[in-house]
Design a protein that fits this description.
By secondary structure, the protein is α+β, with helices and mostly antiparallel strands. 31% of the residues lie in helices and 27% in strands. The strands form 4 sheets. A 7-stranded mixed sheet has the order 3-4-5-6-7-8-9, with helices on both faces. Helix 1 packs antiparallel against helix 2.
Amino acid sequence: MKSSDFSPVAGLMRGVGDALLEWRDDPEQRRILAPAEYKTVADRKAHDLIVAGLQDLFPGVPVLSEEAAWDDERPETYWLIDPIDGTASWYEGFVGFATQAAFIHRGTPVYGIVHAPAMGKTWEGVRAEDLSCAWLNGVILKQLVLSNRLLLCDNYPEPRRAAGILNRRLPCTGYLESGSLGIKCCLVADGTADLFVKDVVVRDWDIAPVAPIMATVGGVLCLPNGMEFSFEGPMEKPLGILAARDKDLASLAIDALAQQGN
């Protein structure tokens, strides 16, 4: 597929983002359907909007979602969506939530979009026949470069768990608190942060939209032990995720985490 085939998707996701902002003040949309998973009516309605829009734009291409069941075997080509990445942030009035989607072909995310409506930011990345690049709000992102800065990113007020280990063992120069998994990875991709790690279960719909963005700017996206983050097999990845500015920084982080029990 060509990069232009994905051009209408940003408009669809921005429309969903506008709806999410409006729904924050609507008691019905805020109604929690599954307390244990923090799922709301808004999650379901955002799912419906995205699925309908993608099926209109890409007839015949299946849409898999966090909000719907699917068979264990994945299609060769499909969309994978996360209607609200960071529902808790959306619900509590914070800006760190996004609506996101990835187009996956033969196990490779070809196109990804992460739209954070409360932040006014839309990250996109594409690895198509005619173009391989990423952009933020329509402006092409530069290739990431080596730097003496080491700005760590996570969603707590201060570094905890794996981020706490890295903060103690690496020469971090700062810490940035942010929201959803997708947004934190995008902050590494656009150069706002340098390193993000999460040592809890993550799922493919959290990470697939970011994969083309990170790949096209030269960033590293892998499991915290350095193994490949595969978009095949189970959707759940128990080990978590690591996003780094460059290979050298990724190696430092992987080594620091490996020494955790020492």
